[in-house]
Design brief:
single chain, mainly beta, Immunoglobulin-like, 2 domains, six-stranded antiparallel sheet, five-stranded mixed sheet, 5 helices, 25 strands, 9% helix
Length: 356
């Protein structure tokens, strides 16, 4: 195991008394020097239990430990996600988390602060999804991506983010402690379904969208996502069924959560689904844009739960199904007389009849 420096940070009782229990993030209580905490080091073995869905894409595992009384922080990086390693810690009661991902999917936020400053709680350590550059967007989705919700950045769909947590006591009288982290994926998949009705001789060539309100970062200890740091993800719809001139389109996106709009009248911000539809009739082609406020759909599906301290949300489901109540209607006259491009309005739970 290669330590992230294998740093140990301790806090004196004097400093903690002055600061008023700095590490309230995880119930810090300073019991003083006579609290019974064993000062001897104890061997701790680390192993990880992975579900079959984890696959082989994990780029090592980070392990964070925080002693609850007379606080001490440890940070290690385990370059193998499968091997069992042994570390040494001072005696006491600990909270520990292990997490891992593909290095291309996330960036770690706050590890150095937690490592170097015992007043920095474990809740401050987060995983963040990098923003997509214009070149990356153009390479993956084409150069014709129009942004109608510019206050939120484009981010990639989330890769699997694995985390396990253990609370344990390390006592020299009991010998080596064996920890097994049961790794679970902190991400969720949102399944979207919508209907498109076309007139005769109208063909839908492409239906794509972007979904806003997908969190950019998540606290690894708590699984809480903040309300003030979300982006939007791009994706393609695919045809899943057809009955006459009615076609059902579906898409699935993997995200850290999905935040609802503050109200059902907003046209920008989190919880807005924007769609781009390319349709043709004969030799004529037209691009339609429309947006849908998903406040009711997100809340009715109970996608997220508000944290007890109201600082953010935690996912409530691993799989969320959102049936977009709006129906998009595309007519032949719209294509033949509307020129090359049309911009639809923003609608809530009603038919979208883009007749410009």
């Amino acid at each position: 195991m290669r330590g992230f420096g294998e740093y140990v940070i301790a806090v004196s009782a004097f400093i903690l008394s002055f600061a008023g229990c700095t590490a309230v993030d995880y119930g810090y209580i300073d019991y003083g020097e006579d609290s019974g905490v064993n000062p001897d080091e104890v061997g701790v073995s680390l192993s990880y239990s992975w579900p079959s869905s984890a696959g082989d894409g994990i780029s090592g595992v980070n392990v964070l430990m925080s002693r609850i009384y007379n606080e001490v922080h440890y940070v290690w990086t385990d370059e193998s996600a499968a091997d069992v390693d042994t570390v040494a810690v001072l005696g006491g009661d600990y909270y520990a988390i292990a997490f891992g991902w593909n290095n291309e999917d996330y960036k770690a936020i706050g590890i150095e602060g937690f490592r170097d400053d015992a007043s920095m709680g474990m809740r401050t350590v987060c995983a963040g999804i990098p923003e997509m550059t214009k070149d990356e967007i153009a390479a993956e989705y084409g150069k014709d991506v129009n942004d109608f919700n510019p206050s939120l950045p484009y981010i990639r769909q989330a890769g699997s983010l694995w985390m396990g947590a253990v609370k344990f006591s390390a006592l020299s009288s009991e010998g080596q402690k064996n920890l097994d982290f049961r790794m679970e994926d902190l991400t969720m998949t949102v399944h979207l379904s919508m209907k498109v009705r076309t007139e005769d001789n109208v063909e839908v060539e492409r239906l794509s969208g972007d979904l806003a309100g997908t969190p950019c970062r998540i606290s690894l200890m708590s699984g809480i996502v903040p309300t003030d740091n979300s982006g939007k993800v791009l994706f393609e719809f695919s045809k899943s069924g057809q009955s006459g001139n009615m076609t059902v389109y579906e898409a699935s996106v993997k995200v850290l959560g999905l935040l609802a709009p503050e109200n059902s009248t907003l046209k920008t911000g989190p919880g807005i689904l924007r769609i781009t539809l390319i349709a043709k009739s004969g030799e004529n082609q037209r691009v339609f844009y429309a947006g849908i406020n998903l406040k009711n759909e997100i809340e009715n599906a109970k996608v997220m739960l508000l944290s007890p301290d109201k600082s953010g949300f935690r996912k409530n489901l691993s799989e969320a199904y959102i049936n977009v109540g709006s129906e998009l209607k595309i007519g032949k006259v719209q294509i033949e007389t509307g020129g090359s491009e049309a911009v639809g309005g923003w609608f809530e739970n009603q038919d979208i009849n883009v007749d410009l």
